[in-house]
Fold this protein.
Amino acid sequence: MLETQEQRREAIYLALAQVPKGKVITYGNLAKLAGMPNGARLAGRLMCGLPAGSRLPWHRVINSQGKLSLPENSDSYREQIRRLEKEGVVINNGKIKLSIYAY
DNA sequence: CGCGGGGCGAGCT
DNA sequence: TAGCTCGCCCCGC
């Protein structure tokens, strides 16, 4: 299980698809749920490689510091902020409250 | 095959 | 809180 990179990718996607709306999850935790204790960086890699039309909630994935791990000047960054706020996620000084972490 | 670099994380100063 | 180091895994050179 989880031998090919396609299987790992699917595992991450499945785990991501289970993150409820209005909540967020860290890269490390996401990878862990997918069965990869040390796959945080892989998770990050996959996020930036997601197809544009994907229905996956990639915007609910943040780093362990409770912040968005994207360049503040990028379009993706603003897009993520926009989507999160639209779901009711409160962000203080760029940080997200621990109370809305999933799992 | 070594080396540097990532949408990472944990631990120490 | 801010930096730095080190460990992890995957990629491109």
